[in-house]
Structures are given as C-alpha cells and as structure tokens.
Amino acid sequence: MENRKSRKSTFLYVILLTLCVPLAYVYLILVTGLLDKIQERHIGLTLMIVFLPLFFYWGLVAVVGIINIGQSFKIYKTGNPIECVNRMLIHKYGLVVFFCVNFLVLFIYYFFISMAVLVGSRGAAIIFAPVLLPWLIVAVVFSVGATWLAILPGSFYGIQVIRMTYKSGKIGFAEAVVHTVFQFFFLFDVLDAMYLATEKWGRGKKSSAIIGCVYLFAVFATIYLIIKMKSMF
C-alpha cells in the first residue's frame, strides 16, 4: 500500500512533463490574448501574467523530481529491487514521448529560426555569423541542458537498480560503472534501463518491445523530417 501511495509522485512527474508541449501551446494562446487587453503602463501585471505560470509549472516539476530522487534512496534501503526496477521503467519509458516530442519541437524551432534569419536577410546573416552563431549555440546548449535535467530522477532510480544488481552479484564493478555512466546520457539511459530490467531482473519485456518500436518510429520519422526540410530549401 505504501509503495502504491508513494508511486503517485512517479506518475505525476511523468504526466507533468508529457503535458509540457500541450500546456505550452495553451499557455501561449492565453498569454497572447491577455496581453492584447492589458495596457502598456501595467508592466508589473504583464510580467506576473507571463512568468508566474512558468515559475509555478517548472517549480512543481522540480519539487516532484527531487521527491522522486529522495524516494529512490528510500527504496534502495528497503532492499526491494522489483519496486525500484518498476519505478525506473516508469520514468524511462514514460518520458519517451516527452523526449521525442521535445526533440522534434526544438529541432523544428531552431531550424526554422535559422532559415528565417538567413532567408529574411537574403544571405547577409552569413556575414554576421561570428556574432549570431555563439548566441545560437548558447540557446541550443541551454535547451539541451534544461531537457537533460528531466532525466535525473529516472537516472537515480537507475543508479539504485545498478547498486542492487551489483550487490546481488549479477554484474561486476566495471560493468556497474559503465551502466552508471549510461544513465546520464540521452537514449543510452533508456536502452540501459531496458537491458537491466529485462536481462538482469526479468521485468518489463512487453513494455520494452513497445518502447523499442517507438524508438524505431522516432528515428525514421526524424530522418523523413530532415529529408522533407532539405527539399523545402
């Protein structure tokens, strides 16, 4: 009963991030409509309307994420590997949709921003590339870094699974180190969790097959999208 009750925070974290893009779309529509009705002199009210929902949403995500990290250590202390594996898979598999959508949205956004600047300036932007490129790199690095933070709660569950797997003698020390490193890299963390769950603990075989199909679809969809974008210019 306690595990089911505390698992709510795990599902809440996944749900919050999965709804990120739809909520962002609704947020932009509402903010745009409200800003049109606010007079220019109400700067304070404008800033509150724009930033308060963002602080609330990402603050909630951060708090729930930290709670999940703390719970991963508690589960390790109970010595319950199956519960820890289940939590890891909920995080890793549950956020696959979020990361796929996030990657596509960011890819399309930065691609069209770059093309819009290049086409709008009729190629003159190339002259200012030494000035514009660093800003673009900073924006991309910030986006990737912010997205990377989202994997941390699941990665900590993965680390606890690795510790339990090593403690049970299923893997050696060197292999445990490699698995730990994989937990902090996009794509590799999901594949590593898949391997640990199915091969070492015999869990999540059906869900792993589904996620594998989703990954293949995402790869082909990305390749198709790149080809289509190239044909547009």
TrEMBL record:
Superkingdom of origin: Bacteria
Keywords, ordered alphabetically: Membrane, Transmembrane, Transmembrane helix
Protein's UniProt keywords contain Nucleotidyltransferase: no
Regions that span the bilayer: 12-35, 47-69, 90-112, 132-159, 171-188, 208-227
Protein name according to UniProt: Uncharacterized protein
Organism (species): Coprococcus comes
